[in-house]
Specification:
Elements (H helix, E strand, L loop, with lengths): L24 H14 L1 H27 L6 H5 L3 H5 L3 H22 L1 H8 L3 H36 L12 H26 L2 H19 L6 H7 L2 H5 L14 H25 L3
Helix pairs in contact: 1-7, 2-5, 2-7, 5-7, 5-8, 5-9, 7-8, 8-9, 8-12, 9-10
């Protein structure tokens, strides 16, 4: 008797008819989530961001509240203790901007991006998953920093009867705005990481735009310098953390929209180049 040859069934999950299974956006998000937490620099950077920002905000508000008697009546009326409570964010944004750049550039530096694009040929989907994961991490970190700084600062301001609470008009928006400001700062670094693909260049460009360029705009003649400075990245974005709106200032949401455009434009250009350039 001759045995009838049989064909073994393909293993579960194997590609059928020669078609390779493509990873979905959810699969890529899970992969990027694993990547971002598998690198020690992520924990170190976020730890520095939280400690430095909350620590500086606490020291700053301690000093400001102690020198309250030196302010004129007009200055006291213009004192925004909610905005002052998150003063450390102006420097703490540096850490999240650096991390945003490294989320993209570290894979280019090691050459691992080639393996990523080979496994997931849809490059725009890969970059979207990176942006989603980093955006979630940045925003949650921003919430911790903003609310932590706020509650600690109110301990000092309550001794002078000036403490605010989250139930007052615009206060909750302003504190959430601190988290949004951290997110936007991080996405600025992410955008230039995507555009430049080099860690040093991306970080230098981001820091230059956040800290150096605003001072240079003040050197422009006439009113040009003041107008450009008002709408320049961090200066515009900081309005989202303000409760008091002084005459002549842009509104909180217009300011934050302006900061968002500042990082969306280079990110869109960088995403376009991802499709055109070799990995």
């Amino acid at each position: 008797m001759t045995a009838t040859p049989t064909t073994a069934a393909p293993p579960a999950g194997a590609a059928v008819a020669g078609h390779q299974a493509r990873p979905t956006l959810w699969h890529l998000i899970r992969s990027e989530w694993t990547k971002i937490w598998s690198v020690r620099s992520t924990l170190w950077t976020l730890g520095v961001l939280i400690l430095v920002t909350v620590g500086l905000s606490t020291l700053f508000n301690w000093g400001e509240s102690s020198n309250l008697s030196q302010l004129s009546p007009k200055q006291r009326l213009q004192l925004d203790v909610t905005y002052t409570a998150m003063g450390g964010l102006i420097l703490g944004q540096l850490a999240i901007a650096v991390l945003g750049s490294m989320v993209v550039t570290s894979e280019y530096g090691t050459g691992g991006i080639r393996s990523t694009f080979t496994a997931a040929p849809r490059r725009m989907r890969v970059m979207l998953s990176k942006a989603i994961v980093f955006g979630i991490v940045a925003f949650i970190t921003g919430l911790i920093v903003a609310f932590g700084s706020y509650f600690l600062a109110m301990i000092f301001w309550s001794q002078h009867g000036l403490a605010t609470n989250l139930g007052q008009p615009h206060v909750l928006r302003a504190v959430f705005g601190g988290a949004l400001y951290v997110l936007a700062s991080g996405m600025l670094g992410f955008a230039f990481g995507t555009l430049l693909r080099h860690t040093g260049a991306a970080i230098a460009t981001t820091i230059g735009l956040l800290f150096v360029a605003p001072f240079l705009t003040q050197l422009l003649p006439g009113t040009w310098g003041d107008k450009i400075n008002t709408y320049f990245i961090g200066n515009a974005g900081q309005h989202i953390m303000q409760v008091l709106h002084l005459p002549g200032e842009i509104s909180p949401w217009i300011g934050y929209l302006t900061m968002t455009i500042w990082w969306l434009v280079p990110l869109a250009f960088g995403a376009f180049l991802v499709q055109k350039r070799d990995a």
